[in-house]
């Protein structure tokens, strides 16, 4: 039993060290990138790079460039923070609301790879020789992890959309929109307050 316990202890220690190391690399790389230029300028560079590499995606953005730039920085700050956050913790619990917001803006699953490439392109350009294989590996694994969680939630939201729309149309034939809306909100607020809160956060953003 002693050898088994020693092996398990070493394995757990190695996993914790790897996780901590990955977080440090992710945070360090992002901090160094932020040091190269002001945040709003960096966000603008990310958007311009997206426009260059994927004009079909950038063309659907209707918000002003400055606002989009700020949103990009906020998004990446959240992704970086998730690298050190406990899975199942408060920060990870925001993923469903973020997923709802992405659906609202028409984000598709295949956009993740493109945005990931855009971000890496910008960071490589900003960091030059300081962008290492270790940083690239840590960023890639974390990006995939976050995207997997995000798109799993998006799939869950979308799986309920068709039956929900069908029921809504049937109910709308009976009640006026304001009456129906208030009735649904009142019912959900009592039975599923967390769901109502997540909707409020998603649609307010």
From TrEMBL:
Lineage, top-rank taxon, reads Eukaryota
List the Gene3D superfamilies. Answer: Globins (1.10.490.10)
Listed name of the protein: Globin domain-containing protein
Instruction: Give the family, as the similarity comment puts it.
Output: Belongs to the globin family.
**What are the entry keywords?**
Heme, Iron, Metal-binding, Oxygen transport, Transport
Which GO molecular function annotations are given, in alphabetical order?
heme binding; oxygen binding; oxygen carrier activity
What is this organism's lineage?
Answer: Eukaryota, Cryptophyceae, Cryptomonadales, Hemiselmidaceae, Hemiselmis
**The Globin domain, residue ranges:** 71-150
| Coiled-coil ranges from the UniProt annotation | none
- Is the keyword Transport in the record? yes
- Pfam families to which the protein is assigned, alphabetical: Globin (PF00042)
């Amino acid at each position: 039993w002693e050898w088994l316990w020693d092996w398990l202890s070493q394995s757990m220690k190695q996993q914790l060290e790897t996780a901590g190391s990955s977080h440090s690399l992710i945070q360090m790389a992002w901090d160094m990138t932020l040091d190269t230029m002001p945040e709003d300028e960096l966000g603008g560079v990310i958007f311009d790079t997206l426009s260059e590499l994927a004009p079909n995606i950038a063309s659907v953005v209707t918000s002003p460039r400055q606002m989009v730039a700020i949103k990009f920085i906020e998004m990446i700050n959240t992704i970086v923070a998730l690298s050190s956050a406990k899975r199942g913790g408060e920060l990870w619990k925001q993923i469903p609301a973020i997923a709802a917001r992405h659906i609202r803006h028409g984000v598709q699953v295949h956009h993740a790879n493109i945005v990931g490439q855009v971000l890496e392109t910008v960071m490589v350009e900003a960091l030059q020789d300081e962008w290492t294989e270790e940083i690239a590996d840590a960023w890639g694994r974390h990006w995939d992890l976050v995207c997997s969680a995000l798109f799993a939630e998006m799939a869950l939201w979308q799986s309920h959309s068709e039956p929900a729309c069908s029921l809504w149309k049937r109910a709308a034939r009976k009640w006026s929109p304001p009456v129906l809306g208030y009735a649904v909100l009142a019912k959900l607020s009592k039975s599923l307050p967390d769901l109502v809160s997540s909707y409020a956060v998603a649609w307010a953003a």
